[in-house]
Amino acid sequence: MFVSRRRLAKLNKLPRAKGQYSIDSGGFSELSLHGQWTVSIEQYIAEVRRWMEWIGPPVFAAEMDHMCEPFILQKTRKTVLQHQQLTVQNFLELMSRAQTCRGSPSCRVHDRGILDCVSMFEKAGVRLAKLPLVGLAVSVAGKARCGSAPSSPA
Question: Domain coordinates of the chain in residue numbers?
């Protein structure tokens, strides 16, 4: 099960996990609603640690990624390359500051550019081929989303 941090953050009482779960950072909602992250990396790390303690350890916690859909780029006023760089930087920072939180890198693309994103991770020392596919396969994005995304700005 993939649970959004936005949903977990609203809960006063946390359930204990009865099976495997992973944490979605809620980046799509953050960027589509606000055009930027309103949650600091410190807050996200603290939340993930709290959920690990109370719910149980997740399979992985997604980084605070930056989607590359055209309407998201309009909201943030950044380029695909900038979004990919921010996503890679956030993954690296989360892994260095919160070693207890297993992360899963996501390559953010819309129509093309997957090799550029993979190359950024590889140059940063993240060997994608050696990581478990459970998180990576879900996170290779653009269209890896439950439900449907708006095709134009709301």
Answer: 2-139
Residue 150 DSSP code: -
Query: Which amino acid does the sequence have at 31?
Result: L
**Which DSSP letter does residue 20 get?**
-
Q: What is the distance between the alpha carbons of residues 38 and 36, in angstroms, rounded to a whole number?
A: 6
Indicate the burial class of 10 (C-beta count within 10 angstroms; 0-12, 13-18, 19 or more). Answer: exposed
Which candidate, 147, 140, 152, 73, places its Cα nearest to that of 113?
A: 140
pTM: 0.79
Q: Please tell me the predicted confidence (pLDDT) of residue 143.
A: 45
Considering only CA atoms, which of 127, 45, 128, 117 is closest in space to residue 88? 117
DSSP-assigned beta bridge partners for residue 23: 3, 61
Q: Is the pLDDT score of 134 beyond 70?
A: no
d(CA 81, CA 47): 28
